[in-house]
Amino acid sequence: MDSKQLDLVFAALADPTRRALLARLSEGDNCVAVLAEPFAMSQPAISKHLKVLENAGLISRHSAGTSRFSHLEAEPLREATEYMEKYKRFWGAKFDKLDAALAAYQEENTDD
Amino acid sequence: MDSKQLDLVFAALADPTRRALLARLSEGDNCVAVLAEPFAMSQPAISKHLKVLENAGLISRHSAGTSRFSHLEAEPLREATEYMEKYKRFWGAKFDKLDAALAAYQEENTDD
DNA sequence: CGCTTACAGAACCGATTGGTTATGAATGGA
DNA sequence: TCCATTCATAACCAATCGGTTCTGTAAGCG
């Protein structure tokens, strides 16, 4: 996953409405009107959020009649998680220098 | 980790300069001037980015003489990773409904 | 004391974001 | 055919973002 894509994924996740949409989609595909229901927000606002998620690769969409269904695509989430796990060796309150060195050595060294 | 804090962490991670700063800090604490070196950007711009990282809890800072050193704080990264792992059951190309149901059952159910 | 270095803060700027309302296009149904 | 439903797009707006330059402040040093 390149840097630009990470920009989009993290930016998409930085909004609580979009995270809630993803959470909802984890329970199953759904159409715009139904997805919009829980929010005190207009339909075009939700459509915009869905487009942001789509651009980040976090959802795909397909039409059925007059409805468009959104489908969760988790792969970018996996890759973003993988990115963050580069920092796993700093987790946990205590680790001595040997631990850190070993952990660092074991890791694939990716930049960015 | 509450929703507001997730906003800040993901928003902080959504910028490539800030991700690069974190990567640099994973090699050790450093002061502003040195951190700024690799970037074609003014010192105040870097100071702003560091403040964003600090507000997200991703770094802490301490002064030493005229310098201020930034220190990586990985805990919010761990928590954000934890958040994303809610979607772990959707990773991997194949999984049948039983797998999904089991994975869902095993999971703590956090909202947002 | 006076100079330099390291950094933060303020003021400013253009671009982007997150929302709105209004409109239009495509589908399905009477 | 005509109408209703679903949704996207356009135009607009205020607020935020990411950068700039200029200035101020605090610490170290001659």
Short description:
Two copies of one chain form a homodimer. The first copy, chain A, is an alpha+beta fold and 112 residues long. Chain A contains six helices and three strands.
Q: How are the SSEs ordered, and which strands pair?
A:
Two copies of one chain form a homodimer.
Chain A: H1 3-13, H2 16-25, E1 30-31, H3 32-36, H4 43-55, E2 59-64, E3 67-72, H5 75-84, H6 97-106
Helix pairs in contact in A: 1-4
The structure holds a DNA duplex (30 and 30 nucleotides).
Share of residues in strands of chain A: 5-15%
- Helix and strand pattern of chain A: HHEHHEEHH
Cα-to-Cα separation, first versus last residue of chain A: 11 Å
CATH architecture field of the domain at 3-77 in chain A: Orthogonal Bundle
Chain oligomer state: homodimer
Query: What is the top-level CATH class of the domain at 3-77 in chain A?
Result: Mainly Alpha
CATH homologous superfamily descriptor of the domain at 3-77 in chain A: Winged helix-like DNA-binding domain superfamily/Winged helix DNA-binding domain
Q: How many distinct helices of chain A?
A: 6
Low-confidence stretches of chain A: none
